[in-house]
């Protein structure tokens, strides 16, 4: 059973980044209205998110080899939560999400 839980955990964590953007996309028009920004500015948040996701993958590999996978994984999830909670102001949202 431990092997099955490891496989399920790895599969869920692999899909974490993709699910985050897929859940976000349908809400973009409502978010633009809520934050008071133009509709053309909302797709920039997805671009920044995907760029950060790509760069983070390059950094997380060596970090997890050096420090262990669990601490790096928990730190990444904590950073994601903090970034998601800082929705205002817009510039900060783009930088940390």
Supply database-style keywords.
elongated; 97 residues
* Separate helix tally: 5
Strand percent estimate: under 5%
Distance between the termini: 35 Å
Give unreliable regions as ranges.
none
Topology as a string of helices (H) and strands (E): HHHHH
**Class inferred from helices and paired strands:** mainly alpha
How many β-strands, per DSSP?
0
Helix percent band = over 70%
Radius of gyration: 15 Å
**Mean pLDDT, rounded to whole units?**
79
Descriptive notes:
The chain is an all-alpha fold and 97 residues long. The chain has helices at residues 2-24, 28-35, 42-67, 69-85, 90-96. The radius of gyration is 15 Å and the shape is elongated. The longest helix has 26 residues, at 42-67. Helix 3 runs antiparallel to helix 4.
Q: Could you give a short description of this structure?
A:
The chain is mainly α. The protein contains five helices and no strands.
SSE blueprint:
Blueprint (H helix, E strand, L loop, with lengths): L1 H23 L3 H8 L6 H26 L1 H17 L4 H7 L1
Helix pairs in contact: 3-4
